[in-house]
Every structure is written in C-alpha cells, then in structure tokens.
Amino acid sequence: MVKPLKKFGQNYLRDRNTINKIIAGFNPQPADTVLEIGPGQGAITEGIAAVAGSLTCIEIDTRVIDELKERFPQVSFLNEDVLKADIRQIPPPGGKMRVIGNIPYNITSPIIFRLIENRDIVSDATLMVQYEVARRLAASSGNKDYGILSVILGAVADIKLMFKIPPTVFYPKPNVDSAVISISFGGDKPVVNDFAIFRKVVKAAFGKRRKTLRNSLLDELIRDFGITSIPVDTGLRAEQLTVQQFADLSNYVSDELLKRTTG
Length: 263
Hints:
The structure is a single chain. With about 260 residues, this protein is an alpha/beta fold. The chain has helices at about 15-25, 45-50, 60-70, 110-115, 130-140, 150-155, 195-205, 215-225, 245-260, and strands spanning about 10-15, 35, 55-60, 75-80, 95-100, 120-130, 155-165, 170, 180-185. The chain has 2 domains: about 5-185, Rossmann fold (3-Layer(aba) Sandwich), CATH 3.40.50; about 195-260, Helicase, Ruva Protein, domain 3 (Orthogonal Bundle), CATH 1.10.8.100. It has 9 helices and 9 strands.
C-alpha cells in the first residue's frame, strides 16, 4: 500500500459506506464529463468511472499514476498540480464539466477560487473539505461562520453541506472532522458588474471583522479609491450584510470608478 504523504495533504478514504454515499450524492450520469481532483488510490474513481461518459483525474502524486492507469484504462489522468493544470481543456467545446474530489484541506480555498474563476465551464462540484470550512462556505448572513468565502461563493453558486464525516473513515486519521459539500453554479444570483471589485469589497469589509463598515470597508475605499460614502448603514458589521447587499455595494463602487474614468 502506498503511504499517504503529508506534503500533499493525503488522507485516503477507506470506508465503503462513506464512498458509496459520496458517489450517490454526486449522482454521476452517462452524459457527464467529470473531473476528479486527487483520486489517490481510486476509492471514488471506481464508482464514477463505471457510470460517467468521460472522466479525467488530476493527481499530483507520481507514485500512484501507473497503477491508476492500469486499473482504469478508460480514464484520462493528468499528473499535475490542480492549481496549475489547464482544466479548460477537459470539457468538450461549448460544454461543461462536473467536479468531484477529496481535496487537500490546506489548499481548499485556492481550489474553490479556481472553480469560481472557471465557472463558465463548471456546472457543479462535490467536494470533501474540513467540516469547519464547510460550515463557513454554507453559512448565511448573521451567522458567526459567515465570512469572505461564504459571500464570494454565494454570489455565484448555491452551497449545501451534505453530510459530516468522522476521522475514522480515513487513513491516516485526520485531526479534524470532514464534510461533503455541494456547489451548484448558476441559477438566480446577484448581478456583479466587476468581480475583481466585488472580491476587494468583501475582503475589505471582513478585514477587521469586529469593526463596523465605517472602520473597515469605508476606510479602505477612502484610502484606495477616494470614495467617502457608501449606500449602506456604515454602523453595521460585515456579517450583517447579505450577499445581495455586497453585490449592490460592489456595483456602486465600480460605477463610481467608471464615472471617474469616463467623466
């Protein structure tokens, strides 16, 4: 058995009931083009490959690639870092893909931002992440877990915490609980005119979490853009604003900046 490596954040999934539950939740279909992130020893790969019309796996660990290729000749394997791989070549032209993965917890945020950036070719994703992160991702305004990831992902996708997973189903056992989340891109979402500005506004608002918007977001907007007022009660804190309010704020800022460049 290949020994999991800490540098890759590897914790191999061993429990068959958990594996089956993840695959059932993902519900692969014959017409699907699927990308699996970090197949490891193929625990999830086997169930997806048996159903999906097309499956590509990205695995950074060179030690397992040859065995995976031998076990799953119908699957395409990329021996690359998922944060550097050209995933835009995976779906057919004009088509979309679905994503699944037991992802390294230390790069959860970069992977999710990568999916957000490529949401035009990703329809949905089912990911195993640290339980505390899953709670933050699925949190709504007013919740103590609500934060930057909740807002940015919530502006472009619906997020559902599907179920919690104990450490005992992994080898080696992680020191934290895990959870499976479902991310569905698209749907009825707020209009964001400039996503780069949106991300900056959200990060600035939560940058000093205990401070009001007057002492966090507005301070930064004054310093960076010379914007001295915003159309929201600056006595509120960031966690009190909905995703729609953040979108409205972002659009106000981008409109103000556009007026200056065109006027």
